[in-house]
Amino acid sequence: MLSKKAKYAITALVFIAKHQEEQPISVSKIAEAQNIPLKFLESILTELKNARILNSKKGKYGGYSLNGAPESIDMARVMRLLDGAISLLPCVSFNFYERCEECIDERTCGIRQVAMEIRDETLKRLQAATLADIVAREDRLQQ
Amino acid sequence: MLSKKAKYAITALVFIAKHQEEQPISVSKIAEAQNIPLKFLESILTELKNARILNSKKGKYGGYSLNGAPESIDMARVMRLLDGAISLLPCVSFNFYERCEECIDERTCGIRQVAMEIRDETLKRLQAATLADIVAREDRLQQ
DNA sequence: TTAAATCCTATCATTTTTATAGGCTTTAAG
DNA sequence: CTTAAAGCCTATAAAAATGATAGGATTTAA
């Protein structure tokens, strides 16, 4: 399961991507429009800024804007930033590898092999799910 | 991520499936062989018994055995029992559906659509990953 | 000067996860 | 009939993760 944090982050990013004319856009606008707790969202957007996914502008008429094209930001990147590993098992994660403590022999673990295949498939789809892709999907669903 | 509980459960089930001649097999045998905390595993096997995935036999020379063929028990079933929903979002879960609280319109949510596609793919693979399949994979990996 | 924004630091309640402890009950063998 | 070895049952609890909230400092444009 995606955490609410990651879900809020992606929702906010999609919202920003959809309002590129009005950028920068303030936390309070996003929080209100998308029903996200204001202070929680503030801390999330700070993380996105620190990770250089967003730019920020301080002061009146300030706010956040995408750092890069909507095609360059995908769900995998955001989920890894906020939730850590994407895979079902730590021993199969590219970015957050850890041994399964109880594991006897990683090489011959059948559960692990299944987890690898699911990881590959899931990752492919999450990387294809860029902000541009999600916005396009929503445009299509709108009709 | 799979919880340790679910991982331990699947590991134990695979172990039992591999030792069908010696069934029933005791918690302590499994715990020792697979490096799983004894009392924790005990509570997990109780859950599997309550869900009719395992049979138990009390008293000396008692223990647990599979309730059904190794082909009939798959990872999806075990994960749902111990961890709940398999999907990335609650609004996309077959067995544990919930609205995303903040969601404005589920029908036109692009994130949800991505989550549905990943759910379908993941579920297909988890359902194919029966105990028999996992054992066969390990036999193959052994060489 | 002021309004509206981000930035920064601290705190915190709740839930989930990962167990542990200890005794009761059942069963098969000797 | 006793005993060893197993599951059954109930309670407890430490640690980590999750999902926030509070309040003030700083920055910027009008």
TrEMBL record, chains A, B:
Keywords: DNA-binding. SUPFAM superfamilies: Winged helix' DNA-binding domain (SSF46785). GO terms for molecular function: DNA binding; DNA-binding transcription factor activity. InterPro entries: TR_Rrf2-type_CS, Tscrpt_reg_Rrf2, WH-like_DNA-bd_sf, WH_DNA-bd_sf. GO terms for cellular component: cytosol. PANTHER family: HTH-TYPE TRANSCRIPTIONAL REGULATOR ISCR (PTHR33221:SF5), WINGED HELIX-TURN-HELIX TRANSCRIPTIONAL REGULATOR, RRF2 FAMILY (PTHR33221). This is Rrf2 family transcriptional regulator. It comes from Neolewinella lacunae.
